[in-house]
Design a protein that fits this description.
16% strand; single chain
């Protein structure tokens, strides 16, 4: 026997400080005999407790419990307390249906990705390096966020849903990028169009494969080109920015000059229309006046002729200045001189 630190003998250990099986069995039998319970009763009670413990299970909100009986699917349990057949007959698999999972393609570690440092990872360069439609290389990293919307399909229809998601995503992204030029791929305002099309095609492929996966979001990160051609593409981007700037300036000048010219043309058209209306009305008035004179002339030719003559002379003579009327019978010039200094006729 050995002694504990409190100077009491420990009957459960031998001198080599290891348990004595015979001593343990003897004391266990003595405890059973003292309590009046047999070993069989203890075993039955333990089996009952173990069966009750293994038959009860709780499904938390946002989870789905998938029950298999002898390996075959039986039912799915929603949130709450449930019962199942114990002792391994019914097997429970919990699936977090509402949890958003994430798969990264061609990105750095999740810690860096969480801080927004999206850089191609050394091991993931092959999946982010793609060929565009104009035979240029581009590095296109992206992230897929998804949920397991159909736990039955997710567990039983596909052997490895995660690998299937990755393979399909890589294939679809390569095809979508391959349908576009390098300028479209590296232009930030066109990235959202690529992501939308890739998400739509990826969801269609996942549904056809019966993966039970719902794509919540597909986001493209900063696309770039391989490092050896980076300086050249920087110059291309700068040229594109200058091009956009010149286009905006030209549109601004267009919006300023064209409306002004259109307004001036409209004003000239309105002036011409007003002038034409004035000339037409004046011509109509002259024609009407001439018609009235002709009618009066036909009634009294001599009187009308004399009146027209006098009216014409009354309009013409005042504009001639000094006027001398010479009598054919006059023989000298003296009567024609203005000796008084007054203007005469």
């Amino acid at each position: 026997m050995t002694w504990d630190s409190d100077n009491r003998e420990n009957p459960w250990r031998r001198k080599d400080a290891t348990p004595d099986p015979e001593e343990v069995l003897r004391r266990f039998k003595s405890l059973l005999g003292g309590s009046g319970m047999s070993l069989g009763a203890i075993v039955v009670a333990a089996a009952v407790v173990l069966g009750l413990y293994s038959s009860l299970y709780i499904i938390r909100p946002g989870e789905v419990g998938v029950i298999q009986r002898f390996g075959r699917f039986v039912t799915m349990a929603e949130a709450g307390l449930h019962l199942k057949i114990p002792f391994g007959i019914d097997r429970l698999t919990k699936v977090e249906r509402d949890k958003v999972l994430e798969e990264e393609f061609g990105l750095a570690s999740p810690a860096l990705a969480g801080r927004g440092q999206f850089m191609p990872a050394p091991g993931g360069l092959s999946e982010s390096l793609m060929l565009t439609g104009d035979l240029n290389c581009a590095i296109v990293p992206w992230v897929v966020q998804y949920t397991r919307s159909d736990p039955y399909r997710y567990l039983f229809k596909v052997r490895n849903p995660r690998e299937t998601l990755r393979y399909l995503s890589e294939a679809i992204m390569s095809r979508v990028v391959g349908d576009r030029s390098i300028n479209e791929v590296i232009t930030e305002r066109l990235i959202s169009d690529i992501a939308s099309e890739a998400k739509r095609e990826l969801q269609k492929a996942l549904d056809e494969a019966e993966t039970g996966i719902h794509v919540v979001n597909l986001a493209l990160k900063k696309t770039t080109v391989p490092e050896p051609v980076q300086p050249s593409f920087n110059e291309v981007n700068q040229s594109l920015q200058e091009k956009e700037k010149m286009i905006y300036q030209a549109r601004e000048a267009y919006n300023k000059v064209i409306p002004e010219a259109r307004g001036e043309a409209e004003r000239m058209v309105r002036d011409a229309e007003g002038y034409a209306l004035e000339r037409v009305n004046r011509a109509k008035g002259d024609a009407n006046r001439f018609s009235a004179l002709l009618e009066e002339y036909t009634k009294a030719r001599d009187v009308t002729r004399r009146r027209l003559y006098l009216e014409a002379m009354g309009q013409v003579l005042p504009n001639l200045g000094t006027t001398h009327i010479i009598d054919p019978e006059q023989r000298g010039l003296l009567p024609l001189l203005d000796l008084t200094g007054k203007k005469g006729q």
